[in-house]
Amino acid sequence: MTRSLQHALDEALGFIEQALEHIRAGEGSDLELQNLRAYLLNILELVERDPGIEAATDDLYAAAKELALGGDKGTRMARLMESSMLRLRERLAHALPRSADMGQSSPPAVGGTQIRQARELLGWPASYLALRAKISTAAIDRAETGGESAVAGAHWQAILAVLERAGVEFTADATAGVRLSERKK
Q1: Which of 88, 99, 3 is nearest to 48 (CA)?
Q2: What is the C-alpha to C-alpha distance for residues 152 and 69, in angstroms, rounded to an integer?
Q3: Which of 115, 149, 110 minimizes the C-alpha distance to 130?
Q4: Which residues contact 142 (CB under 8 A, 6 or more apart)?
Q5: Nearest of 109, 108, 111, 144 to residue 125 by alpha carbon
Q6: Are 19 and 111 in contact (CB under 8 A)?
Q7: Considering only CA atoms, which of 101, 107, 117 is closest in space to residue 178?
Q8: For domain 108-184, which CATH number applies: 3.40.50.1010, 1.50.10.10, 1.10.260.40, 1.25.40.10?
Q9: Share of residues in the chain with pLDDT > 70 (%)
Q10: What pLDDT, on a 0 to 100 scale, did the predictor assign at position 173?
Q11: Torsions phi, psi of 133, nearest 5?
């Protein structure tokens, strides 16, 4: 693992630990769950696709959500959340940095119109993109009409991450647009 990847992962894990501590304490659980989801998405963007890491992030989020919003707020759920965090750390210890060939050195700027085009290319209604990005349909609508500045940064990143995982490539050729990547066709 490269030093810069390790530094970025350590920073993200620190933010995750803070969010989990707030959830354990019952402080701002809804907001902290949103923050947790954004931090986990950031981690997934830093490393090569790995089903083990993806499963560990899903498990951690599910345990934190149950502790924050579910009926079981006891030590059993807190231990489950802690073991999920430990499993994520173990998986990340062997993570590889995301390949440089997955895009240019500076990705093209993406606009709201491209978000709508990408969603339509995939045949997804706004509600499905919202479900996959774990944000509201209203946030999708704002992103499509107002672009990046119309939504929270974490929401914008969640939208882009979901669309890119689905195989969408954002282009900046003569005109900005979208296409399916070769590996998803």
Answers
A1: 99
A2: 23
A3: 115
A4: 150, 151
A5: 144
A6: no
A7: 117
A8: 1.10.260.40
A9: 86
A10: 58
A11: -85, -5
Q: Under DSSP, is residue 27 helix (H, G, I), strand (E, B) or coil? A: coil
How far apart CA 63 and CA 57 sit, in angstroms, is 10
How is residue 166 written in tokens? 């689905």
Nearest to 112 by CA among 162, 156, 147: 147
- Tens of pLDDT along 56-98? 999 999 889 888 887 766 788 888 889 999 999 999 988 888 7
Q: Which of 97-111, 143-157, 167-181 has the lowest mean pLDDT?
A: 97-111
Q: Where do the CATH 1.10.260.40 domains begin and end in the chain?
A: 108-184
Widest Cα–Cα separation across the chain: 57
With contact defined as beta carbons under 8 Å apart, do 183 and 167 qualify?
Answer: yes
d(CA 73, CA 50): 31
